[in-house]
Design brief:
The protein has helices at residues 21-28, 36-41, 55-64, 81-84, 94-110, 113-128; strands at residues 46-48, 77-79. With 135 residues, it is mostly helical.
Length: 135
């Protein structure tokens, strides 16, 4: 993406003028997620868990969704239950963040190694299959 004064406050959106052609390809192919594996190796992230949001979004979303901060008890992940259930990409309305939190909390309450393996396989499937929420 091209640099902008509000980069740490503004989520990338469909047809965002900051996205370069290379960036569009990286996003569409999910290759933009690859550097996050460094965070997994450092122990700062997990392969599976709630997707991290910008700090501004944490502040904003915690005011809209009552249980939003509970998801902070989990280590953030590269992929998660919400993502494989269609809640990936831009958040355009409060219902989308509400559903992501519901999915994240379901994951927290139902975690198992088998569930993580299923999520990883389903993530690969969704990356191969075109996702309408990816731009």
């Amino acid at each position: 993406m091209r640099s902008s004064y509000d980069a740490d406050m503004k989520q990338a959106t469909k047809n965002d003028s900051r996205v370069t052609r290379i960036g569009k390809f990286l996003r569409k192919s999910s290759l933009d997620e690859f550097p996050q594996f460094i965070n997994v190796f450092k122990g700062e992230m997990s392969l599976v868990g709630p997707r991290p949001h910008m700090l501004k979004h944490t502040t904003d979303y915690s005011k809209v969704v009552d249980d939003y901060m509970i998801r902070q008890f989990l280590k953030p992940g590269i992929t998660g239950w919400a993502q494989i259930n269609g809640y990936r990409g831009e958040i355009t309305n409060p219902e989308q963040i509400q559903m992501r939190v519901i999915k994240d909390l379901w994951y927290l309450e139902n975690w198992s190694l088998w569930l993580d393996i299923q999520i990883l396989f389903l993530t690969v499937y969704h990356v191969i299959k075109e996702n309408k929420n990816t731009f």
